[in-house]
Amino acid sequence: MSAPKSSLPNKPVAADRVRSADLPVAWIMMLGLIVAVGPLSIDMYLPALPSMADDFGVSTAFMANSVPAYFVGLVFGQLFYGPFSDRVGRVKPLYIGMVLYVIASIICATTNNEYVLFAGRTLQALGACVGAVVTRAAIRDRLTAKQTAKAFSIMILVMGLAPILAPSLGAVFLQFFSWHSIFWFLAAFGTLNLLLTKFFFFETLSEENRNVRPAKEILSQYWELLKDPTFNYPAIGGGLLMGAMFVYISSASELIMDTYGMSATHFGWLFGMNAAGFVALTQLNQWLTNRFRILSILRFGAMMQVISAGALFTLGIMFGTDAWLPLVLVCIFFCISGLGLTQPNASAIALAFQKQRAGMASALQGSLMFSVGIFGGLLLNLFPVNAVLKVGIAMFALMSLGCYLIWQIDRNLDLDNAD
């Protein structure tokens, strides 16, 4: 029996909810709120990096290392929650992760030491990443491949508001309070997630579909996933494309505020425009999936991102930091907006053929994304070149490789009958 589209469903038995015929829109939007804790945690404090650097007596570039520190927690946390949720269900991991997130946010809010902040950010990510793992797996538990692509688009409509509003919201907090207040807000948002889990998140993984293989086989199961061509090409390719965005996030404050002298308020607006483009294309993706094959849309989006990243790379070579800022921002805009066509579809394909290991597949896919973010952040520090070229090199290299892998996906995959 399918859930009504207009209201949040009751908590039925998991087996009765799996593979619903209709899209449970309200439930998907609630999942978007749970996942929004991730982008809020990444983006909201970015305008505060220069003031945090002043307080700690370090450079903005050094303080920006707190972004890769957060990604480290996301990588390892997801690899734990994936198999754990396949074994015990989707609800318990959410409770554990959100409690950890709230505690870590309080640590970040109360510290005056940069290394404690870095550790707190890693711990914060270890908690926050549970939302992305469990919600992707829960959607896979319940919906078909085409519905999954649409569901991810709907979910991004909600969670996508976080990166649009987060930098501006962070800038507002800075006008009236210190940067510590941003982390107090995040602790409150984590508490909200706990309440949503308690009252509205039902179990989607039935007992018979749980992974009962011994825990000692986890590494071998991850290796089996990596060797599966129905998973590895879309997951790694999509991870490289998404990871390039995290490279931009790591460098955005230095590029836009330090290099081009933008204020924290204007930075928030510019950052929000990119997120708005991302959300807009995810909604277009819902319409496109009714008319075109998911793989065709994915390939088109990947090409859009590569061309845009190549243009940014060219600007960096030819003009460096003298490049006209609006043109730089347009290139970045299309790089980020293109994710609206690549991420829902890459995720849908990667999870389509994973039934009893959907949590592991979701975790590995997410970890691959943030591993690229960490690698890309380190890559930025290797090039003693201007800020525009540095970002252009990293994004173009990652997106080119991601696009290549996307084009290796078997065009004859029967996603309609995947289970």
TrEMBL record:
Keywords: Cell inner membrane, Cell membrane, Membrane, Transmembrane, Transmembrane helix, Transport. This is Bcr/CflA family efflux transporter. Belongs to the major facilitator superfamily. Bcr/CmlA family. It is found in: Cell inner membrane; Cell membrane. It comes from Psychrobacter glacincola. It is a multi-pass membrane protein. Residues 27-411 form the Major facilitator superfamily (MFS) profile domain. Gene3D superfamilies: Multidrug resistance protein D (1.20.1720.10).
